[in-house]
Design brief:
This protein has 342 residues and is α/β, with parallel strands linked by helices. The chain has 12 helices and 13 strands. Helix content is 34%, strand content 15%. Bound molecules: N-carbamoyl-L-aspartate and zinc ion (ZN).
C-alpha cells in the first residue's frame, strides 16, 4: 500500500504554550482535526475560566479546534471542574505529580488530597490524563514510570474503578502490559516509537531527543511499536509535541520536550508501514481517541502517500523565538497531502 486515506486524525496530547511560541507552533498541527491541549503554562491553567480564555488565544493563533484540559492541583475545586466540563469548556483534567516534568511544580504531592476531586470526576464522567512517573529521588529516572504504575496507578484504579483514565506518553514494556491488561486509555508519542535511548546518547548526547518520560531501551521501544500497531482500541495518537526555544534545548541543563508536530503524522505512518500495520493506522490515529473521550470521529479525510524521504526541517523563527523541530535521524517516506508537500 503506498497511499492511504483515513479520517482526519486528532492529537490527544499537545503542548501549544502561549504568546509568541503559541503563534509559532499553532499552525504546525494543521493536519490534526482536534488537539487535547496540555495546561502546563506558567502559571498553569487551573480553572474553567482560564481554560476558556486559553482556548480563545489558541483559536486566535490559528488552531481552530482545541480541546481544553485543566491542571489538577491539591486545591482544585470540583464544582468548577464539573461546571466547565458540563459547559463543554473542559474535556479532561491533567494530573502531574509535582516535579515530574516541565512546569509541574504546581502538581500533586499528596495524592490523598485529590481523592474528593477524583471521586467527583468519576461520578460526572470527567476523564483524567496522567503523567505517569514518580518523583522520588531514590528511584532511577529510567524506572519512574514502572514505579508509578505500582505505587499510584494501580491504587488509583482500585479506588476509582469508573474513572476514565489515559496514561499519557507511555514508554515501557511495563506500561504496555498494564494498558493491555486493564484496557485503560494510553497515548504513544512519535519519538518513543521511532527512537530509543541509544539514539539520544550513543556517539554524543542529542538534546532534541530528550523528553519525559525519558527514552528507554530498545526492548521498550519494540513493545510500544507492537502495542501501537496491534489494533488495540484503547491506544491512540498523542504527540506530546512540546516546544522549547532552541537555546533552552541546546544548554547545559536541557529542557524536556520534543517539537514533533511538523512531522508527526508522517512519522506515525512510517512506523505503521515499517510494522506492516497500515490497516490499523486509522484506528490509532483517528478512531480510538474520539471513542475513548466519547466524541465522534472527524468527518473529513486526509490522504498520505509513500514517496521520497522528507527533508529535515530547518529551525523555525518568529521574532526572538527560535525552535528546532525534532528529526528522528531516520528516513520518513510518508507525506501528508495538501499541506505543501511536507
Ligand atoms: C512536556 C513539556 O515540555 O511541557 N515535556 C516533555 O518532555 N514531554 C511535559 C510533559 O508532557 O511531560
Ligand atoms: Zn506532554
Amino acid at each position: 500500500m503506498d497511499r492511504l486515506t483515513i479520517r482526519r486524525p486528532d492529537d490527544w496530547h499537545l503542548h501549544l504554550r502561549d504568546g509568541a511560541m503559541l503563534s509559532l507552533v499553532a499552525p504546525l498541527s494543521a493536519d490534526m482535526g482536534r488537539a487535547l491541549v496540555m495546561p502546563n503554562l506558567v502559571p498553569p491553567v487551573v480553572t474553567g475560566a482560564q481554560a476558556a480564555a486559553y482556548r480563545d488565544r489558541i483559536v486566535a493563533a490559528g488552531f481552530a479546534r482545541p480541546l481544553m484540559t485543566v491542571y489538577l492541583t491539591e486545591g482544585t475545586d470540583p464544582a468548577d471542574l464539573i461546571a466547565a466540563h458540563a459547559a463543554g469548556i473542559v474535556t479532561a483534567v491533567k494530573l502531574y505529580p509535582a516535579g515530574a516534568t516541565t512546569n509541574s511544580g504546581s502538581g500533586v504531592q499528596r495524592f490523598d488530597a485529590i481523592r474528593p476531586v477524583l471521586e467527583a470526576m468519576e461520578e460526572h464522567g470527567i476523564p483524567l490524563c496522567v503523567h505517569g512517573e514518580v518523583t522520588d529521588p531514590d528511584i532511577d529516572v529510567f524506572d519512574r514510570e514502572a514505579a508509578f504504575i505500582d505505587r499510584r496507578l494501580m491504587p488509583m484504579r482500585d479506588a476509582h474503578p469508573d474513572l476514565k483514565i489515559t496514561m499519557e506518553h507511555i514508554t515501557t514494556v511495563d506500561a504496555a502490559a498494564f494498558v493491555r491488561e486493564t484496557g485503560i486509555g494510553a497515548t504513544i508519542t512519535v519519538q518513543h516509537l521511532m527512537a530509543n535511548r541509544n539514539d539520544m546518547l550513543a556517539g554524543g548526547m542529542r538534546p532534541h531527543f530528550y523528553c519525559l518520560p525519558i527514552l528507554k531501551r530498545r526492548r521498550h521501544q519494540e513493545a510500544l511499536r507492537t502495542l501501537a500497531t496491534s489494533g488495540a482500541t484503547n491506544v491512540f495518537l498523542g504527540t506530546d509535541s512540546a516546544p522549547h526555544p532552541t537555546h533552552v534545548k541546546e544548554a547545559a541543563c536541557c529542557a524536556a520536550g520534543c517539537l514533533t508536530a511538523p512531522i508527526a503524522l508522517a512519522a506515525y505512518a512510517q512506523v505503521f508501514d515499517e510494522e506492516g500495520a497500515l490497516d490499523c493506522f486509522e484506528g490509532f490515529a483517528s478512531l480510538n481517541g474520539p471513542a475513548h473521550y466519547g466524541l465522534p470521529p472527524n468527518e473529513d479525510r486526509v490522504t498520505l502517500h509513500r514517496g521520497d524521504p522528507i527533508a529535515a526541517l530547518p529551525a523555525l523563527e518568529r521574532g526572538e523565538t527560535v525552535v528546532t523541530p525534532f528529526d528522528p535521524g531516520r528516513p520518513i517516506r510518508w507525506h501528508v497531502e495538501g499541506n505543501g508537500g511536507c
